[in-house]
Amino acid sequence: MLEKMSSPSFLPPACAPGDATVLLRSQGYAVLGAQGVCELAGCTLDELMAMTPGWDGMPHDAYLKDGGRYRRRRHSCFVVDGDTVRPVPHRAHWQPVEYNALHGGMERWFEPMAAADVARPAWARLLSWLGRVSSALKGPQPWYLEAHQFRIDTTDGIGRPTPEGAHRDGVDLVAVFLVGREGIKGGETRVFEADGPNGQRFTLTEPWSLLLLDDARVIHESTPIQPLAAGGHRDTLVVTCRAGGFQDAAAQPGVA
Fold it and tell me: Which of 33, 213, 221, 243 has its CA 20 to 30 A from that of 12?
């Protein structure tokens, strides 16, 4: 069961690798440590850590409606069908306003992930595993994945990982990897029942630890970060898995 938000515990409730799917089904979320991720995805921590330089030097997010310059990001899309991982032509990220009241309803074109990172064998294994998790949760089928690299920095004092607030993403599975955090405080993860009073709060600190979310059952957010040292930042990888196709403005009724 999700704990009351008054819970004094802020440690991530990491589960044993074999319990992740069970917890997703029973409570709508599961947390894995980095070693659990490696065990289930069939890769090593060294392979995952080798991808972390990809978060350096990313372009700024030019679409922030609060005028901030605290977010950098890249975005690429894939189709996972069984063990086959196929990159798709670069496309815009789009969400309806029902799921993102702040930035929904507009096509946002971000620079794609670096080709060298997408070509890594560990990357394909990671996405293939998330496809298997999605199929275990919702039934075997092809999955449409959007991968977002985020860096939230504190150059202007405060960085907001989720400026839209607590939200759902309009997908089936959300995977939030904590890639790294440096010189900051804050960035607490909060998960709430979508149709109930309960929630959980904790702070991911271990590189490549993971929060898995059943997007239909829970909403989530991360609290703002503040600097403890110059250059403070928080890096995450968010991968969403959706059945039936990517979210697309052209597929929405009444949207030109």
Answer: 243
